[in-house]
């Protein structure tokens, strides 16, 4: 079979839409995993692999093993001419493979039945931060994520890449209101503030909790902070206003993991 | 004075070079702070402001105060036509102001005389990670940074932006060898590994230390890890390979800050 040469090919057009347009991902229920490492994570995730695009000039040491594994999933393998994936990807150096997969669908029961902390993301517009937080949450033994409105789409290619595959495995639910999330999760809810809250080590983070994080600059909206059980303030040097939100979330999640280890000693 | 209309203007060409080319930054000793927040940080840093580029369509509530402040620094104000800054910047939405400033020069004595942890970055090629780590270090009360070869230029616009101005204030020195850094800093040196090391809370991080971090995937080179005083492993869930390097650094730096607080209680 000849490789696809044109970006006007319908399959390439669909791939481009899935990479660039959250609406296309929502309508189709499909995500794209770009690059070798993320493709490997997709193959291991148990999610349905629909189609695999491979650039005809791609040479990588893990290529043969990965293609054999993806073929065994009954996925369609589509060869494309060199340059096509680069043209439609926003990564500087796409690695010659892009996997279209069925996005996971999660419900509240799947989230609430898991142990460990929950992250609630309010208006977190940078997909890189959403992905990095998911990666940290998976590493720190978290349960999953709740996405408030105006938060970046977890299927955004930058989010998936930053998550290193964690978004394939962690339950993610969307919610319109704190009340809904509180009713379902039945644990303590905390949010962060630059001042006036308690240091992470002074809160009982070894118990199940949900942490509401907001966009830097914007903070957490009132609808997602009023009536929470406590405010976390990471103590910082005088003159420093704030931390990167993914760093702040990581610091609190791993402080919780430290407290759980300490309680087992 | 008419605003500059052409990207071929010599001042615009110089600005573009400073934004895009580490060699041009090194030769001239100049950096560029893009956007309102970073320009404000530059104005507060005490560093010499050389020139200020302002887009003639820029309207922001902090504009007048910022321009008054920058004018009082004897900086040349250069007006440019709308679109020029967007054309040469790699940010999606440049905010209409770019400040050229004299890059700080630091020596080992300035770094070693400060209290708090030191970060040593080995082959950390993503400027965003370098900047985010500098921001976390400043917030966690760190002394400064040592850059091993092949680490991203701290004057890279992405590094400056991610640092939220921390790179204007924190001592940064370059070093060719771990031996040089150890001799000058005279503290414990730790590095990180995905397994086999000690949990952060089991190391005496309330004492002065230096933490060597390497690129994800590559890790820390042998020249920068052999003979260190200890290895830190952040305990992670089974099946998770690694953390984002900026998150890992933040977790360890804030665990050190927690230990310092605990030792004062």
Helix coverage percent of chain A: 25-40%
Question: Count the strands of chain A?
Answer: 10
Mean model confidence by pLDDT of chain A: 94
Query: Nearest-angstrom radius of gyration of chain A?
Result: 20 Å
Distance between the termini of chain A: 61 Å
Biggest β-sheet strands, sense, barrel of chain A: 6 strands, parallel
H and E order of chain A: HHEHEHEHEHEHEHHEHEEEH
Approximate shape of chain A: elongated
Quaternary class: homodimer
How much of the polypeptide of chain A forms β-strand, as a percent range? Answer: 15-25%
The number of helices of chain A is 11
Question: In what order do the strands lie side by side in the largest sheet of chain A?
Answer: 7-6-5-9-8-10
Structural class of chain A comes to alpha/beta
* Uncertain residue ranges of chain A: none
Largest interface: A-B, 32 and 32 residues
Your description of this structure?
Two copies of one chain form a homodimer. Chain A is of the alpha/beta class. In chain A, 37% of the residues lie in helices and 18% in strands. Chain A has eleven helices and ten strands. A six-stranded parallel beta sheet of chain A has the order 7-6-5-9-8-10, with helices on both faces. In chain A, helix 7 (127-139) links the parallel strand 5 and strand 6. In chain A, helix 3 (36-44) runs parallel beside helix 4 and helix 7 (127-139) packs parallel to helix 8 (157-163). Chain A is elongated. The first copy, chain A, starts with 9 loop residues before the first helix and ends with a helix. Chains A and B meet through helix 7 and helix 11 of A and helix 7 and helix 11 of B.
